[in-house]
Amino acid sequence: MDLAIKLIVFLPLVAAAIAGLFCRVIGARPAQVVTCAALLIAAALSVFVFVKIGFGTEKLFVVKLFSWIDSGTLDISWALRVDTLTAVMLIVVTGVSSMVHIYSIGYMEEDPSIPRFMAYLSLFTFFMLMLVTADNLVQLFFGWEGVGLASYLLIGFWYDKPSANAAAMKAFIVNRVGDFGFALGIFAVWMLSGSVGFEEIFGKAPQMAQMRIQFLGMDLPALETACLLLFVGAMGKSAQLGLHTWLPDAMEGPTPVSALIHAATMVTAGVFMVCRLSPLFELAPTASMVVTLVGAATAFFAATVGLTQFDIKRVVAYSTCSQLGYMFFACGVGGYSAAMFHLTTHAFFKALLFLGSGSVIHCLHHEQDMRLMGGVREKAPQTFILMWVGTLALSGIGIPFILGNGLGFAGFYSKDIMLEAAFGVHTTVGMIAFWLGVIAAFMTAFYSTRLMFMTFYGKYRGDHHTWDHAHESPIVMMIPLYVLGIGAAFSGLVGYDWFVGHDWKAFWGNSLAVKATEEVLHHAHEVPLWVKLLPLVLALSGIALSYYYYVVRTDLPDRTIKAFPRLHALFYNKWYFDELYDAVFVKPSLALGRFFWKKGDAATIDGLGPDNVAARAQDMAGMLMRFQSGYLYHYAFVMLVGVAGLVTYFMLSAR
Amino acid sequence: MIVGLENWALARPELFLAAATALLLIYGVVRGEIATAFVSVATAVALLVTAALLFLPYREGTAFASLFIADRLTATMKALVLVGSAVAILMSRAYFEQAKAWRFEYPLVVALATLGMMLMISANDLMALYVGLELQSLALYVIAAFQRDSVRSTEAGVKYFVLGSVASGMLLFGSSLIYGFCGGTAFVQISGALADGRSAEIGVIIGLVFVVAGLAFKVSAVPFHMWTPDVYEGAPTPVTALFAVAPKIAAMSLLVSVLMGPFKPLFAQWQQIIVVASVFSMALGAFAALRQQNIKRLMAYSSIGNVGYVLLGVASGTEKGIQAVVFYLAIYMVMTLGVFATILMMKRRNIMVEEVSDLAGLARSQPMMAFGMLIFMFSLAGIPPLAGFWGKLYIFMAAVEAKLFVPAGLGVLASVVASYYYLRIVKVMYFDEPAEAIDRPSFGVNRVVALVAAFLIAIFSLVPQPLSLIAEAAAKGLFQ
């Protein structure tokens, strides 16, 4: 078991090192083989570990590697901690990652730097696995920063594209804001509990809830503050409202990257972190309330933006943002298991949607604008069907009441349980989250099917040259789509009982906050019938409306826009967040930087320092040159003045 | 007064050189211009033999009724001067042949100048000092103007002559004042008179100021340096090489023996003069050269700066300081001869060039030549571990031990500024777009000199101890 865990984590690192360091020697094909093989082995081992822990009796494995930092009372070691929560993440990460690796063989076929790409992907996977297997906050932070680095490298993979570089920097810098909060949160936890190891922290959680900290004259509840700071970190990584601006831009990276990092795994790290720290969050009601509100607001906000976008990947990106909002409000109300359930199903169907979009993009020679698509189902029938699977899973479509829990696509189970959890807690915040979530569910169904109708239905609107060369993607890209399609279709059905149904206790063990989960799941299953049905009804009406707008009456979208121009502009321009940040943060920072550079460094330090000294030296040289006139009497005069000066000096000093 | 001849053998080297010069002069006159090559080589050999005679056997003491003194310091300094002059003579042939001024008088006049320098170094009386100095100076005025048909050369000769006369006048005036106050011209009499309490008398101090001014002119210390750039630039290049080496060393040696001998009781006074001259020389040598385009002129300022460092060693007035002075002068001679040998090789289409910009891209056309120049420049700039660094280090250490903190600090700063123009030459040679290529230097004396100089610098850099031991022995002679 220990060996399996070690292999899962370190095989991707070894593969990344081989592909990255020796890429010039071994070439593209071996790099692909090595990385894909490593990931497939890791994925197989993950299934083994998952089954053993999830359905076994032994719920926790800790593999000690070695001591890292041992200074005073601070003792941090490298250790791989695998419980059910981690095992679920292992499945998600290695599963999606291995599929993306294989898909990349086809998608990146014509790229000149294949080994570098594969190495980055594997390196990302290693960091992500390090993150989910962390045994303490510092190790978690290591993985956290590592995935940030890999994300930066992959967004900017096409480094000759200025927009890609800008997006990479944006992602990195916005995440710095979150990471700052996260780091402060870690410091706070260490200050309160004297430890960063999860086991010790959770043991001291009840005491911590009683403590208070003083900061700048304010008397703050300690645990609430720490949790809020940690949540700021989660907001950055998971692109929650306020720190979400980097995620849509990150679509500049290659599509497999979007699928792996910016849909299935890295962006869910925030959710994972909150679930991992659920024993702390369940004792911090105010912080949890903030989590709920931010999550619900994000779910709603991102959905509105998604309604209006035309770039196929951006629609999916805003959808991701929105779905992450769902997961957070589920966490906020205590439905950690529901959040993890949605995280898992979402990983499958969102990766499917991204890779499917990639397949469409590949088919149409890197065309991403949906206005220039249409009728693609003729050219890519398999992608078409699989995209429908993903879309229905995202919209949460299913048939209730049969087979006990109903029969439907993955999102049907996971989204509903989150909404039910939010309703079930019967608090104001819960109700806000529920209603925003329900409205967002309607919009989700609308925009995701809008994507389908604009892309696959109607007539092709792009240029004919592209259309003539359009083709279904190669088999190496279709296999991952099928695998993910199966996950998107059935993961909800299979997982329901274990994740949130009556077997949840046996499944999760102690890896999530037990008390809160029990309470929330209990209430969630007791909600009135209309609550259970409402999301489905709204989703179906969203699909119907979308069909009417984009297939039956294609003039309606424009007329609607004309009817509500302001609202459309607001949504289309992403609520002007980028413009706001540009004016409030970016421009002043640049101005400040320019000031320090031009006025501070160049004018003051260089100007008075090196440059000034050099210029004065040159002036002096010029002066001395003029002094050297060439006239004899000048020279003799200088000599006499010298003697006279010395004599005068001595005569004066002799007195 | 009867001249005592009892110790005349102490002056054997000088007598030999005088006789050899006279004989070669007669030979030259008889044979005419065809004898030039022979006379030139023979003079150089005679100078080297003279140097050998200093130590085979080595003797010390005074002679000619105490007008003449010989000890370790004088012997060492004379050896440096003789070698410098000999090399300068050998280096000059190609240049003068091309300038159509290749005459047998040239090496002989240099030999006479050298004889004057030897007498200066050995002077033990103000009268002997003046006679030696004038013999040297008159000879040097002649060779500065040796290229008679060149305006620049004659201008240099006249300038040097006029200003040199002013300096000589000052020296004589100072001597007469001192004679008046001390009642004698012999160094022993002066120190004896000053030792019994008359040191504070203003007349003596004024006399000292004038004497020091006269000597400072010869070493071209600020503010008596004004002639240097013009003369260095105008004089024929081999003459400049000689000027930069032999008279500097001789005059510096004389300055040391005058200040540390008869005027030792006035140490507090002359230290102030020397420190001022030193600091200003270092500063001027550093700043004024920054914009120079002509290498000879640049070397003139460089020599002023180097004299500043040597004076700092003199100003410390300690045995360590004098040791540093000897050490520095030896290294300075090697570096300077190397640089001038390289300058003498700078020809384009068989015409001598002497601008810094002419060196552009030298590293590509003549890598060996460029590398040699690089060593000299790095050494002059005082980059460790090259010999020039050790020289400066000893000087500064001596100054710091003598509590001359401020002048030592200023010296370090000046050497930073000066390193700019040394390194600029390296930059021009290695990084600038090549100018029209310099001719491939023919195999000759200059190439050998440059090679040997570079080699010696390498040796001194790695093993400075032997040279430092010689300097130590020389300095000890002064303090017995």
From TrEMBL, chain A:
Q: Where is the NADH-Ubiquinone oxidoreductase (complex I) chain 5 N-terminal domain?
A: 68-118
Subcellular location, record wording: Endomembrane system; Membrane
User: What parts of the sequence cross the membrane?
Assistant: 6-26, 33-55, 84-105, 117-134, 140-159, 171-193, 213-236, 257-281, 287-312, 324-341, 347-364, 385-412, 432-453, 474-496, 533-552, 632-652
Which EC number(s) does the record attach to this protein?
A: 7.1.1.2
Question: What reaction(s) does this enzyme catalyze?
Answer: a ubiquinone + NADH + 5 H(+)(in) = a ubiquinol + NAD(+) + 4 H(+)(out)
Keyword annotations: Electron transport, Membrane, NAD, Respiratory chain, Translocase, Transmembrane, Transmembrane helix, Transport, Ubiquinone
- Stored NCBIfam families: NDH_I_L, PRK06590.1
What is the predominant subcellular site recorded for this chain? membrane
Give the species.
Reyranella aquatilis
Enzyme class, UniProt record, top EC level: translocase
Q: Could you tell me which residue ranges the NADH dehydrogenase subunit 5 C-terminal domain spans?
A: 527-644
Query: Where would I find the NADH:quinone oxidoreductase/Mrp antiporter transmembrane domain in this sequence?
Result: 134-436
Tell me which PANTHER family the record gives.
Answer: NADH-UBIQUINONE OXIDOREDUCTASE CHAIN 5
What is the official name of this protein in its record?
Answer: NADH-ubiquinone oxidoreductase chain 5
Q: How does it sit in the membrane?
A: Multi-pass membrane protein
Question: Out of the domains of life, which is the source?
Answer: Bacteria
Database matches in Pfam families: NADH5_C (PF06455), Proton_antipo_M (PF00361), Proton_antipo_N (PF00662)
UniProtKB/TrEMBL annotation, chain B:
InterPro entries in alphabetical order: NADH-Q_OxRdtase_suN/2, ND/Mrp_TM
Q: Does the keyword NAD apply?
A: yes
A single MF term (Gene Ontology): oxidoreductase activity
Which Pfam families does the UniProt record give?
Proton_antipo_M (PF00361)
Q: Which reaction does it catalyse?
A: a quinone + NADH + 5 H(+)(in) = a quinol + NAD(+) + 4 H(+)(out)
Task: State its Enzyme Commission number(s).
Answer: 7.1.1.-
Membrane topology category = Multi-pass membrane protein
* Job of this protein: NDH-1 shuttles electrons from NADH, via FMN and iron-sulfur (Fe-S) centers, to quinones in the respiratory chain. The immediate electron acceptor for the enzyme in this species is believed to be ubiquinone. Couples the redox reaction to proton translocation (for every two electrons transferred, four hydrogen ions are translocated across the cytoplasmic membrane), and thus conserves the redox energy in a proton gradient.
- The NADH:quinone oxidoreductase/Mrp antiporter transmembrane domain covers 123-416
Q: What is this protein called?
A: NADH-quinone oxidoreductase subunit N
Cellular location(s): Cell membrane; Endomembrane system; Membrane
The annotated subunit structure for this chain is:
NDH-1 is composed of 14 different subunits. Subunits NuoA, H, J, K, L, M, N constitute the membrane sector of the complex.
Source superkingdom: Bacteria
Question: Which HAMAP family does the UniProt record give?
Answer: NDH1_NuoN_1 (MF_00445)
Q: Which residues form a coiled coil?
A: none
The protein's UniProt keywords, in alphabetical order, are: Cell membrane, Membrane, NAD, Oxidoreductase, Quinone, Translocase, Transmembrane, Transmembrane helix, Transport, Ubiquinone
- Bilayer-crossing residues are 15-30, 37-56, 76-96, 103-121, 158-182, 202-227, 239-260, 272-291, 298-316, 322-346, 367-390, 402-423, 444-463
The family line of this record is: Belongs to the complex I subunit 2 family.
